[in-house]
Structure prediction request, 704 residues.
Amino acid sequence: MKRNKTHHSKKSIKTTLAVLLSGMIVPAAAAQSEPVDTTSVRELDEIVIEAPKVIRKSDMDVYHPSKSAVENAKNGMQLLNNLMIPTLSVSDALGSIQAAGQSVQVRINGRESTIDQVRALLPETIKRVEWIDNPGLRFGGANYVLNFIVANPTVGGSFQGQARPALNQAWGFYMADAKFNNGRSQWEVYASCKLTENLEIYRDYKETFTRPDGTSLTRTETPRGGRLDNSLPYYFASYNYIKPDTTVFVAQLSDQQHLGNRTEYHGLLSLSDGTDDILLTERNGDKGNTPSLSLYLQQNFARKQMLVIDFNASMYIGNSWSDYIERSPAASSYLTDIHTDIKDRNLAYGIEADYIKNWSNSRFTAGATYTANRNRSQYRNLDGSIFHQRQDKVYFFAEYFRRFGKWTATAGMGVQYTDFLFKESDRGNHTWSPRPKATVTYSLNQNHNFRLDFTSWQSTPSLAETNVVPQQLDGFQWRVGNQSLKTANSYMLTFRYGFNLPRVSGSFGVRAFTSPNAITPLLFWEGDRLITTYENSRGLQNLSFFIAPQIEIIPDWLVASGYVQYRMERMRGTGYDNRNNAWSGNASIQLMHWGFVLSGQYIRAQRDLWGEKISWDEDLNIIDLSYNLKSWQFAAGIIMPFGRYDQGSRSISKWNRNEQHLRLNMRIPYVSISYNLQWGRQKRGAQKLVDVNADANRSTAGGR
Prediction:
């Protein structure tokens, strides 16, 4: 972090002052003539007022892109990576944003968005990035929120393009985006495709089944190859109308296509009871598309009042399927042949209305949301049997923020009503769930603050967890949903200290979490069948310690950032009491000079205990080198240059102990070309403050 300096001359004095105290609003207008790693907020005749790259506010950390960060990026994801925000794990190559192993809700001017929409942002238009690790009630239970504040010029347009093919696999990413402006209106069209075709994969798998009478059987799978397909085209077209300080209207149509998400394994099963080996083939996947519509209206009134209305609807049309085949190498007949094919036609829609009132030292926000899911699943493998599920949710909240000198406090309460109905069985349930939240922050000064935050949220049962149609997974494993599941509650208490020191900034703290009735899998024997169903468990509790620093090793040149977490957790359910201790984190280092950007990243995935299973996502490392030349960027990199790719899980159930490691040739070298063309001056981007979630559900076919 570059420290502010004072410069003296004989005739005038220019003093750099950091005047943005915790909780104050940072102006969006910024000049571009400031030093490389500061953002000029306002310039007077004799005084230059500048803001450091990160402002510690009571409810968020605000990052201002430096001039070098903007110049060495060609889209919003690349700019975010250049900011090197601690805690965040950002990969433009993989198209992912995570924090502490959890998902991050991304927003653009307050409007919930996708990573593709972040990619479509012009770096020059991003004025600041708000990092919120304690989201308020209106964010709908998000773990973390990343909000890009964008202020585009008034007329003109732009075109962006990017191609990132791999050199040894049918893998890559391609995108194009165009924006056009006319008066107060802006049109945008976007198309992208994440290509993954026929990647060679295999898995290491071993499992031991124990029956209630104490007898056991161990099956060891020797891999014999496999493949992975997962190509995802995505399109959207949007229109927005903005009358400054009065009205904002946004309409967007989008479509996410699933061309054929497919995973296929081949293996040889060896059994501990001495019987003959078994040839195994297991396939599963899905295919379909998800069109969606979003409408948004924001109207400002006198006395700093605002009304926001948001509508969202989506539909999933597609099918999911799975095959599980066992046969003897010496025979052509099948020992086990299981085929599941589910056709979904699912609809979701939601509407949210929020009222916001601001005073000089306080803010009041209240809102209501209604979301509905209408699911229709046809089981083609069960003579076309059709099942319907209806789910309705109503959510009310009110939240009040107040500043008291160096102290700020936020308190609020949300209430969620959830109702389920299963048409064929005429069964269902409904629950009322409170969602309290409170935050207290003490800011010693703009470089040091302390925050204590309590938050809560609810998790509703998914379509797969409530589906009572029996699905056979292998020779004797079955899965059956539970229609008696209730909405699960989660509570979290976090203490965090944020600091800015010479060349070092970041935070560290402790987090306590509990979900006393978490929805988890439950295994039990029913005759010769091992059944997996779901229950409201006796709860998950964990305690985490974390530190997230950013270090300027060589100012303006070399920066490192990272996140390290150690977590202790306990999970209890019917017939089990499990514990798990593990560390996770990510580290990034970046060298930036003369138009070149050399970056390296290491990620150790979080080991999550859930029910009777410990699972982890990808352990990854990436090296990337890019060069920026005017409107062009040329880059080359490699994914997994070191180590062995691993993603997997370990079951610790007394009935089924197994360990699975997904392996694939992830050592992928790639090249990338990006291009930006801008003309005229663009329209200011829409400032959408809320976004209602209406995601259509999808069925899950069988598979171990």
Summary: The CA atoms of residues 300 and 306 lie 4 Å apart. The first strand starts at residue 6 and ends at 8.
